[in-house]
Amino acid sequence: MESVVEELMGKLPGVSVVTYTAEPFLPSIFLHGPKSMFPPDRNHPFCVLHIMFVWEDRAHDNDIHEAIKESARWLAEAAPSDGGASEPATELLATNIEKTKLAKYPNIAIFGTPLDKMYGSNVERLRELKVQVDPKDVMGLAGGWKF
């Protein structure tokens, strides 16, 4: 991980901080409350991964956004192959970051994340609900994910 951060810092002028924080949840999280729209697949516990870069110059926004995405892709490809994990949080991250199993957490997903990557097959139902609840698209004026 350290080499990835060093490589990214070398490529990205003006980046002063890079942090990665894993927030694993136990499989028992699904025993509390009824089924919901997130996560779309309750067969796999999830782990929220916070990736944060800090920079000041807006001229670098696009490059840094792409670097964040590249960093997440690298983690998704590298984590499942790490069979030597011994810490429970690391094991949870390694087994659940696989692209096919892990839904992106909507509260922290980077802009441009497709809705189906967060809500899976529930997207169509969410669109139907949006038409019923917000027929004048008032919430469309706010930020956030657009159904």
TrEMBL record:
It holds the Pfam family BBE. This is Berberine/berberine-like domain-containing protein. The lineage of its organism: Eukaryota, Fungi, Dikarya, Basidiomycota, Agaricomycotina. It comes from Sphagnurus paluster. InterPro entries: BBE. Residues 116-138 form the Berberine/berberine-like domain. It comes from the Eukaryota. One of its GO terms (molecular function) is oxidoreductase activity.
